[in-house]
């Protein structure tokens, strides 16, 4: 077996609403074989991976996989389950897996769920799949691999890149509130919300956290000065730069003292309760390795506490205890440490509720101060301290004391946060008892530090006491209850008309006064404008462009063209839309990305209809049975959307039935585009003759796009007069370049369009016959990434209208050989119309020049293209004049 390709679908996709990885697995010599062809295979595999015995598989109960292997199943299916089991063994707990035939013998797609915020470039999914293949083949060959060393490497990589405890808690809390969450790269940086409502957090630091406050908090001496000026008790301290000054500070302050780096964190380089000059000198050297500026301050006796202040209010409090072990009279200190570290709640750094204990230089030194070594066997019940400082990052533990905090202590902490200027911070303090008022005696209590971006894990999952959902408190600070976190999202898919429709919708919403973010095949635009609003030029109909729009803090509404390619290759770029539009579903892109039939295309494009918010609006083409039929899919019905149908007239059976049931519909009544609510209520929107680019209704496909756009805009409560005004002003040359644009070139009019499949070509041909009452000449190229049959069929549709066709090839052959596409197009033309006259041309310029020469005076010329800019440049060179 081998893995030939791997892709990650980061958003909702055709397999799952959560991220997945899709691996193309080639079974090679195992193509015709099943598990029953290899006696003992299942037993040996389960012996190596006992957890497989609990896999449900399609049986829906533990043991289902074992039953499948006993009956006989193919090895792609087995590899899927092995990969899932290996994932669980590294702590990466995912449940969903599926294996589907990929269209050729022995070729399968293995789909595995990914953790929601796993970085897109993580090597872990590929590593797990590769190890799964190696495991299955190794067991078959009687040479199973040594799993643990390989799993250890994958485990380390997974732990390194997973969200930290605080950030993960914030992500969960946001999702519970319905706030969209997107991780940025492999950082602990989250975008929360969409567009104008977007907020950002980096662990417990928010985009409202004061930069000045952070600078003050990072400078411990400055922080103490600010706090002291506010009347908040702090330890007396001296800033020292050498050993002599450290000893002077010891004499001035009197023992015991604390020595720490001025800008240290997580207890690094901190010495506590030091009385002897030698201790202070050693502590100074340790602190100076972290920061050459060292703070020596009075030691405050009492207990260590951390109070979390969020938005000026005390949110939680914990008592902290330094890292330690408790003797049992039999085990050494080293063995006790190993036993404590076996707790799955302990991990490296901040990736678990607790940090693993260490026996490094600092710990060994502290053991020695108590008369212990690594191999000492403490008495039963004896507490052996590994550290003096109570930081969780050095192995300490926490006990929740939120309900015990005295009101005066809470006010002191809140005043400390306000004095520093922090919206979220952790207050480290020492005092005899947090449940009692702070002692009035100087040196009996004090705020030790104010921490920016405080860790939340001590409050979320304390070692003792109940956890506090402080992440939800922070989310409430960013998004107060009732405050919006989303902007309206309109997602448009289909085969033809997507780009025109999204441009129309964006124009309507912009005329309404909204700042619109638009993503379409020509690029990303802001405010729904033409070239002036272009911020990113590319084919922007995929998820990355959608994410770009939704991340822009100026955007008030997002209109997203959602093409098949992006769905298949990366999933959706949003979690759910307010309005989903499906223009039509006709043959195109067959043979690409595994879409082999029209049903496959329906399945792909249905995702846009399925990933809609509960009670959202679904706009469907009643004249296209496949598009209209999406309303009946179970995944769509579960969302209970408001279905809005559009069609050419109310005479069609689907529209009539829909309106009779009280539904909302859009159609042409006489010469007016109309909105109908139920069987009787009618709202005129705009005369068809006034729709820009519809040529008085002769461009029927443009009228259909206008109906879809009107339906989407009205679903967002856009006033009818705004819809009408926008459709009147949607001039193609300004608002929809390259789609249905007519230019005067000498005695001829040139129609520029992007039609590139049978349905689109048929529609543009019908328009040409209605508009000019004669067929004219066509200059055409077609995309090379379609299969031969579709290219031939598209060319045949051209021949239905045009008896003279100039054929050229685009510079980008999309994997075709030179001349191959020309041959296919000519074959399709002649198959449909043997008398067709075809003229070869080497490039775009030659094609248009030839077509103009072939055309008689006043005859129209249709120009189909692949890239718009060369067409625009050529027309400018020829002195073309835009025609209304």
From TrEMBL:
Pfam families reported for this sequence: Cyanophycin_syn (PF18921), Mur_ligase_C (PF02875), Mur_ligase_M (PF08245), RimK (PF08443)
Reactions accelerated catalytically: [L-4-(L-arginin-2-N-yl)aspartate](n)-L-aspartate + L-arginine + ATP = [L-4-(L-arginin-2-N-yl)aspartate](n+1) + ADP + phosphate + H(+); [L-4-(L-arginin-2-N-yl)aspartate](n) + L-aspartate + ATP = [L-4-(L-arginin-2-N-yl)aspartate](n)-L-aspartate + ADP + phosphate + H(+)
EC number: 6.3.2.29, 6.3.2.30
Domain of life according to the entry: Bacteria
Uppermost EC category: ligase
Role according to the record: Catalyzes the ATP-dependent polymerization of arginine and aspartate to multi-L-arginyl-poly-L-aspartic acid (cyanophycin; a water-insoluble reserve polymer).
Protein name, per record: Cyanophycin synthetase
Organism: Actinomadura rubrobrunea
